[in-house]
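#structure-requests
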Amino acid sequence: MSGTLEGKVALVAGGTRGAGRGIAVQLGAQGATVYVSGRSTRGRRSEYDRPETVEETTELVTAAGGVGIPAVADHLVPAEVEALVRRIDTEQGRLDVLVNDIWGGELLFEWESTVWEHDLDKGLRLLRLAVETHAVTSHFAVPLLLREPGGLVVEMTDGTAEYNATRYRVSFFYDIAKSSVLRMAFALGHELGPRGATAVALTPGWLRSEMMLDAFGVTEANWRDALAKVPHFGISETPSYVGRAVAALAADPEVARWNGQSLSSGQLAGVYGFTDLDGSRPDAWRYMVEVQDPGLPADATGYR
């Protein structure tokens, strides 16, 4: 796939860390120009108070072979998003890929807390961060994306449509947030398809993000040490894996076949033939249905 996205312009909204960073870097690895937006910069941290920054992500994009461009923006502020899209138009005159990966809810949701027990202000802010930001970004970015045929919008979420339809996901607010994004991709597919563009929902599996590794007290180098406490973590994947999924979609001349659908990194690895950094192909959502959810002993054999 090397160089397949040269001349293409992408915006990874919410690309400071996690899946967004992995996606931005892998788009860059295929030669794309990638604008990375977020609130965490070297001069000011967001409410996360994490060390990762948009500048750091764009440096990784450039080092991978693309052109990384940092863009500080709060996607809950329409004027900031409008200005960002205007900047992309002025500097590039086009937008080929929009990745809506804005989230920001890890510090807000309460595990398996009912709607009446959950802190209301935190729950409502979670919904704003997870859903409203995506709508604001699409409102301003899609007209630029539609200027050239073949544009792609990727709505990042947690869980496939099939999986989320039958399972309670963590809490009322988390469940609604992630299911809303799935439906958002479906609705966008109906609006973009007739206009020559494609929209999909995409989920990674159990992601070894910076925050997840910190939560388990491990690094990417020794992540398997976490299996002693959480054996099912053996099905986990790096952010680069879902990043390669997005790069494969963006380079596919027949990407419209996926329009409006819910996809996963493991599913697309089987179609496009890419692997995670270690050469494996984790299929986390099949694993969860067939092994984890039924309460079987952890064993990723045959699932990666």
